[in-house]
Amino acid sequence: MRIIIQGILILTSVLLSPDTTVATQLPLTVSQNGYSGLTVAISNNIVENVALIQKLKDWLTAASRVLYKASKYQLYYKDVTIVLPKTWSMQSSYKKISGLKFSRAHVRIDEENPVVGKVPYVFGQTECGKPGQYMHLTTYILFAGEFAGFGEIGDVFVHEWGHLRWGLFDEYASFEEAGLESPSAFYLEDGTWKPTRCTEEVSGRNINMFTGAPCTVTEDGIPEKDCVFIADKDSSATASLMGQQNVLKMEEFCDTDESSTDSKLRHNSQAPNNQNIKCNSRSAWEVMREHDDFKGNTPGSASIDTTPDFTIEVETDQRICLLLDISGSMKKNERSSKMYTAASNFLLNMVADGTSVGVATFNNKGRIVHQMLTISSQSDRQQLVASLPTTTGGTTSIGAGLLACITALNSSSDGLEGSMIYLVTDGEESSAPYIADHWGMSQTHIGGISRASGGQSFYYSEDEDSTVLTDVFAAAVIDTSSDTFIQIESKSFSLSSTQSFEHYITIDATVGRDTIVQISSSESNDIDISVTGPDQTIYTETNSTFGITTIKIPNIAQSGSYTVSVTTTSSIMIPAVLNVQSKVRVPGETTAILNVWLSDDTHVYGSEDTTVVYVAVLKGMAPVLKCDVVASLEGYNASTIQLHDNGIGSDSRENDGIYSAYVFSNNFKRSGRHTLKISGQNTNNRAEILKSKQKSNTFPYYSGLTTELVGNFQRVILSSEITVTNYSTTPLTDNIKPAKITTLKLKSVQLMGDTLQIILLWKAIGDDLDVGTASEYDLRISDSFSKIKQQPEQCAKLTNNIPIPKLAGSTEQHVVTIDDDSLTRYIVVRAIDDVENKGDYSNIVSVSKLTDPAWTTEAINTVNLTGTFVSGGLAIAVLLVMLILGLCLKVRLSKTNDQKKLINEKRNQKQKSGKRGSSKQHHNRYKYENRNNIV
Description:
Pfam families: CLCA, VWA. By secondary structure, this protein is of the alpha+beta class.
């Protein structure tokens, strides 16, 4: 096998052993119906409590049983690794691992989210069928179990697993579409407002969650905003786990809505929930069957033991091997000196104290040039720098280099697991041993090797305006320590004696410790640099070494705007890169950070397929709203790509702190590998963080939402690489259609004489997906749900006063009048661009004349709710808390005193039948109290 490489590339790899690899999100495999590799990690914010380990085992054991039954005996958790933070005590039965696994774990146990509190959720779910980033649980939930009000522990976990692994969405009501009036807890059909549920066999009642009275409609003819559906605990419904899990018999996922499907499993494709909106009205099982977990999988025996095998690991300080290419091709374009400069900066300024670092090189042979050294002083750093290579020559054997690093890392009794290799190379393998000789990888480029080994790859184009060599090490060390540098800014520029450089940077109030301002240039001896602080203090004391001129701001840098001024005596233009880094002002406190991931790492030039870049802007776990996030392809003068958090097109939810954008073919100017540079900033003091208000005594998990200004800040981060194929200089044709509209809603429904007048709302999308302005709208109406779902173009077209599309993200409104014939009508809309590219039809909205007397004012009778409390997912207020974050949460009802008997009966039944259930000890410890429990 040959590895084809262009330019200088840095690859971050995490090695378990020579024949075992881990992934950036740790790998999860399926064999013989069992998941292997599930990792649950505990944050170092959690105080040591060994009882938590047993609680996690209880949860995963229960979840494994629930999953096996719900997946039709196809999947369970075969083995689970529980990772403890290094602040916890080491036991003889525990296994040591290098570094921080928490940031790559599938399930993370951490403090309460400041916005949603104790509520379990999955972070970073974006598209139907696509996985989320991780599941978040709190210690409160783990110890309280079902008495926390979220449902039985196995059901809670498997519900979240549906989000995390298979990309399923909630089947309960959703209110996160900010700015659009939405009765999504109900839909109007057959003369009544039906509750959002799956399946329709879930029985219950509709009440005002604050007054307890039966629901009524507003003057606009839609349900009052505080109306919720309360499912009966003893309902005979068995599906769906993505919906009303509070039902005692709930243990399966919904299937198709066809008549051949058992009615107890039949998906309610008309309900206006996120599963239908995001997944085109497909059921959970329709999505699950397309996942690789189920392809080619056959059911196992119903009687097998699904208890996972547990391994306990404890994190230790990170161990890194720096692997540098010294083959002959590194002489070209001063690659060797550039690598030397970047590696020196990494060792001197970026890698955290307490990290063990070794250095190895390779050409046709691999060599350890410095054994592993735990960094504790500046002299340790200088010692490592002194070992860096200064000569080049020979052929290239990346496999030999990797073997050398493995030998160095394996010198400790702690072993290899969790260790990292940072590889810098510029060429293809030309001599043995090849990577394939030892690892069996079949990838044809270094990015594939990176993914297979669980790392990230970054491409350096060698263009003068590229900042990758500065940025890449900063991106690589983010998760190697709890006290790493935060990259504030990186910027390329050129200067001469007649053209100086001046740039403004912002040091915000959460950072400022160990702040460094650096200029990297091959002509560093001819460069002068000064930094002027917000109080006009001028810093000029520099340290120049290895092509880097550094100014360190003493003590804690004052927050505010700094001016960086650079001059030179050179008469020729000198290329240079500015880099600014700082640490959090107080160790352990939160600051604004950027997390970036891609929907795909390959792009076929000229195709309709697009890559989506996602950037989460967070302060701790709280989303940061209204900041400016842009992406640019490094290495050439490409246009910037603006990311949005507006809930249309590529963006799954508005105002959740996750910004996104499509990367189109016209953003690229060549084939090969590319790296996206992300800049997130707030320079106009507009950005806000979401936070909760004072908690309600009535609803302990409902606190409402408010915002507070977060202050000005700047951040920079790199994405992993994107590989472009089939590039052509032939002008592109416009084959990108407008995005699907997923925000169609009813604003009002009123009977006006003999006609029914309805007002529709939706958000405008673009000409190309969610960019620009579409040319026209196409609205269709039908009295057949199946026809408008399957053959919308054959339905009647609405033509009266159709609005002209506005700019993407704007709110559209349209009035439709239909004859009062008591039929239910179904409406969809799509956008069309200027070359007749037609977007997909929207989510379906149903409407009919309201004839159900239960929704009239005269039918209202106050209901006594003493001892009965509304649960989380169905409550509008609670949903505002949970869903605004872009978190996938679950629906539960509280367990009240009058329901305790049902719970005990079910527990007894399960213990007799061997079905999942909590231990007696668990229930004795957490006695039920007369309190309100909300999800």
